[in-house]
Specification:
binds magnesium ion, Rossmann fold, 43% helix, 6-stranded parallel sheet
Amino acid sequence: MLGLPDHIHAFLFDLDGVLTQTAKVHAAAWKDMFDTFLRAEADRSGEEFVPFDAVADYDDYVDGRPRLDGTRGFLASRGIDLPEGTPDDPPGTRTVQGLSTAKNVTVLRMIQEQGVQPYQGSVAYLHRLQVLGLPRAVVSSSANCRDVLRAAGIDGLFDVVVDGLVAQRDHLPGKPAPDTYLAAAKALNTPPEHAAVFEDALAGVASGRAGGFGMVVGVDRVGQAEALREHGADVVVTDLAELIEPAGGQGSDSAEDPEGGGSGGGNQA
Ligand SMILES: [Mg+2]
């Protein structure tokens, strides 16, 4: 009925890319910020400008992680060491905090301009859980989580929200560490082995595996099913609707098809 084993009693959802169509917005905002920075660095040093890759760099260093960790991780991948700075640094200051703030300003502007669309398959899945009275949490690294839930019209569908602000308050290390997911399961009074994690990020499925959760569902919006499995997904779907509408048997590029057939990510709208 829910497409998951019977021992799963609680449901923990990532936000961006699982519930809402905001992962692409984040990727674009990161690219905007890093390319501005990298271009300025190239101008200063006279070395070649190598842009941020909104697919590979986003997946490997940024997606799913707390904002500051994302900035540090990508800079480290380029061998760039910047001072930490402070949260008061103006956007674009040549510090970890200043660059991170610039990314946040951009993503908030984009969200304001474009609005936030939820994935309808996720909304349908949440409604089914609600009808069944099963506990639900959002577990997001984002500090803007509650605003995004509200903008998407799905803020009333969760018992617990563990977001970037909660993590900061409670000193929880971010994904790929399992702590934020474990905190959500605890808040729902469910042992991790009886909870499912729904994640679209490599760092996110890794935190599900690290936490010993009963099921890690990789949500593949961009054609990276194999990488999701390698990092911790027990099963991969392209949309949560697949879990409640058995894929009519043909042409479904879903969970149980480990060959994947190189579908090239054509499912993304
Ligand atoms: Mg995500």
